[in-house]
Amino acid sequence: MIDGAPVFTTVAADASPLRFFPYESPYENQREAIERIHDALGAETDVLFEGACGTGKTLSALVPALEFAREEDKTVVITTNVHQQMRQFVADARAINDREPLRATVFKGKSSMCHIDVDYEECQVLRDSTKDLVDAEEDLDELEAREESLLEASQDGDGDATEARSAVMDELESVESEVEELREESICEHYYNNLTVDTEAFYAWLASDVRTPEEIYEYAEQENLCGYELLKDGMEEMDLVVCNYHHLLDPVIREQFFRWLGRDPEDVIAVFDEAHNVESAAREHATRTLTETTLDSALAECDDSDDPRAAQARNVVSAFRKALVSTYDEELGFGEREQIGEDWEDLEIANSEGRDDLTLAFLDAYTGQGIEGDVEAALALGAALDREYDQKYRNGETQVRKECQTLQTARFVESWLEDGASGGRHPVISVREGPDGVYGRAESFASIPRDVTEPLFANLHASVLMSATLRPFDVVTDVLGLEEPETMAYGLTFPEERRRTFAVDTPALFASERDDTDVQRTITDTLDDAIRFTPGNTLLFFPSYSEAERYHDRVAAATNATTYLDEPGEAVEPLRERFAAGEHGALFTSLWGTLAEGVSFDGNDAHTVVVVGVPYPHLDDRLEAVEDAYDAAYGAGWQYAVEIPTIRKTRQALGRVLRSPEEIGVRALLDARYTERGRREMGKYGVRETFPEEERAELLDVAPEKLKFAMLNFYSDHAAYDGDPPTP
Fold it and tell me: In Å, what is the CA distance from 692 to each residue of 52, 67, 493, 544, 645?
């Protein structure tokens, strides 16, 4: 128990492999998955679990994990990077709680729960200062009570009490002075109340249901408490915690998170939802950056400091800044600087042999007595300045807790030099337009995510990684560093006769072909047919937002359907709601946008989904670095880095429709590379074989001009048209 957090009691229940299953009975595949996952957890084996929509993946993983955790005194953590999935987890956890008492909550970061809107560093200082004040006030209360007791004794003639009271009075005066000083420092009123009022009612409320951060914030706001700190203290008693990826993938946050759980890693069972995203998320968390503005701030700190180490630190900081600027100046060709916009734009600085351009420029610009010694001095200076900033904020001398830019810079430069010597990372410079012109950023890009994930999976009791598009399992095993995981895959269990999946033999949309007028005409006519012969809404995915806009404009001029265009930066939920509320609409979006996964189109929201082209990502410097790294590590760089993630994206898009066994729908892939002809005639460009075997078996090849007849026959067989069907 921490700071008054109560110990919850577990309600006894008959042990059963399905006691946490909230409904009457599981699907047959669910029952099998539950048993296999439970056995794997007993063997401390990780699980790779692919399940199509309707297989009940979440409960298939949660039920055995909770059962095993209850048996073996573990904590279950389920994590996702999709906001909508968190709401689904809450619904599932509440359904479980209705059947079997469950202590569960959703945990989010401080920024989403703070009542006074300060960053993490400021919050930490406020929390420490507030705790110091409360401790001093408690000491003061004890001394005042002791002084009063001794006064009574001395009045009764106790000489020893008179002498003891004199000593207590001296200490009391010192503590009173300390309390007065602490009250003048920066403190948090909400956290102060956490420490000084009875919080049993909060913990009783927390245990009574599965609570969300929004609910906790609202409760704490009404009571003038800090809900974030209360939740941290109450997490030790939880059976299940729902959180974001970064709570497990960021090594620093993970260490704190486990401490709040009151658990060592080996006592945690982790369930990763949408686990096909773990690779990219881990890479993001392992990547380090340093901007030119941070370097400028670090130089200002060095200039303002009279510490003798400041000169050594300046040697490092100024040389790195000079190298950064000179490198991107040299990389930007004539007229390119004027084309730089507000988004970061990468410049290629890596060399196939030897050190990268930025490192070479840094070594050339450095003029000190030794880089290693100067970096150590910069680290020491940064640590001293950071302590100074911390103390000034605690003392109320500053309104915000200043972060030390010298310390950040020194840490980055130290790791940059180590990364360049050891390999495994890719150096990048990016530039963008700022208020004062173009400025740059150095980035140590993590090419191999297993450097982050392998230690995590090795230390946890076990993990379940689940997704509708996780295969090929051997690729996931390699890139995440798993050791002989249990693997299982369950395809669509809905009636096959209620769906059709077409591979339409339209021209292959290679980048060089996309501006061809004949190609555009064929694609436009085929899309118009798909929309016209859909009894309801059609969802259309393209390789990019620009392609989505191109065909939206072309189709909108010819169709009688209501068209919707998803654009970058637009809120997707209002757009989805408008589209789903219509009766005959077409929504055009990018496969790399947020509508491609984690967003469901249930019931009549959409009946047909079309994927246009094979949506390979732009082959930039970063992706080529990943491809090279995977080629060196696994001998299959293109497949691991490009083709398989692309087909996963395509499969995710196809899964946006047909969300229940009662639904009917058509899924269409428009590009010759998906067809059997593409497999036979297009060599490595054909992608049909990249799909799992049972999904390939459902692909029906059709000529573009025949798609409308195939759709008409299918939907007519299911009496889907309201009135007379369209005329071909």
Answer: 12, 32, 15, 25, 13
Contact 171, 164 (CB under 8 A): no
C-alpha Rg value of the chain to the nearest Å: 31
- Residue 404 structure tokens: 């030390």
Residue with tokens 């591979």: 503
Mind giving me the DSSP string for 138-203? HHHHHHHHHHHHHHHHHHTT-HHHHHHHHHHHHHHHHHHHHHHHHHTS---HHHHHHHHS--HHHH
Beta strands 47-51; 486-490: pairing state:
parallel
Q: How far apart are CA 294 and CA 299, in angstroms?
A: 9
SS (H, E, C) 209-263: CCECHHHHHHHHHHHCCCHHHHHHHHHHHCCEEEEECHHHHCHHHHHHHHHHHCC
Nearest by Cα to 520 from 388, 613, 633, 422: 613
Per residue in 54-74, is it b (16+ CB within 10 Å) or e — as a string? bbbbbbbbbbbbbbbbbeeeb
Three-state secondary structure call for residue 67: helix
Cα Dmax for the chain: 112
Distance in angstroms (rounded) separating the CA atoms of residues 80 and 86:
7
Q: Which strand ranges, in their side-by-side order, compose the sheet holding 699-702?
A: 562-565, 585-590, 538-542, 608-612, 665-670, 499-504, 699-702
The model's pTM: 0.86
Tell me the sheet residues that pair with 412. none
Angle formed at CA 631 by CA 626 and CA 634, multiple of 5 degrees? 110
Using DSSP's 3-state secondary structure scheme, residue 131 falls into: helix
Kindly give, in sequence order, each residue whose CB lies less than 8 Å from that of residue 387, ignoring residues fewer than 6 positions away: none
DSSP character at residue 337: G
Q: Are 636 and 630 in contact (CB under 8 A)?
A: yes
Look at residues 632, 658, 630, 650 and name the one whose alpha carbon lies nearest to residue 690.
650
pLDDT digit string (tens) for 215-254? Answer: 999 999 999 999 999 998 899 889 999 999 999 998 888 9
Of the candidates 667, 564, 659, 562, the one whose C-alpha atom is nearest the C-alpha of residue 603 is: 659
> Are β-strands 425-434 and 437-446 bridged in parallel, bridged antiparallel, or unpaired?
antiparallel
The answer to whether residue 162 scores a pLDDT higher than 70 is yes
Residue whose entry in the numeric block shows the structure tokens 């000179």:
326
Q: Would you list the DSSP string of 593-655?
A: SGGGSS----TTS-SEEEEES--PPP--HHHHHHHHHHHHHHS-HHIIIIIHHHHHHHHHHHT
Return the ∠ at Cα 296 (arms to 290 and 302), rounded to 5°: 110
Mutual angle of helices 227-234 and 189-196, in 10-degree steps: 40
Query: Residue 601: which of 642, 668, 651, 659 has the closest Cα?
Result: 659
Contact of 468 with 652, CB cutoff 8 Å: yes
- Among 347-356, 395-404, 448-457, the range with the most confident prediction by mean pLDDT is 448-457
CB contact at 8 A, 465 and 50: no
User: Token digits for 295?
Assistant: 């370097």
Contacts with 108 (C-beta within 8 Å, 6 or more apart), sequence order: 213, 243, 244
pLDDT digits (tens, 9 = 90+) for 256-301: 899 999 999 999 999 999 999 999 999 998 899 999 999 999 999 9
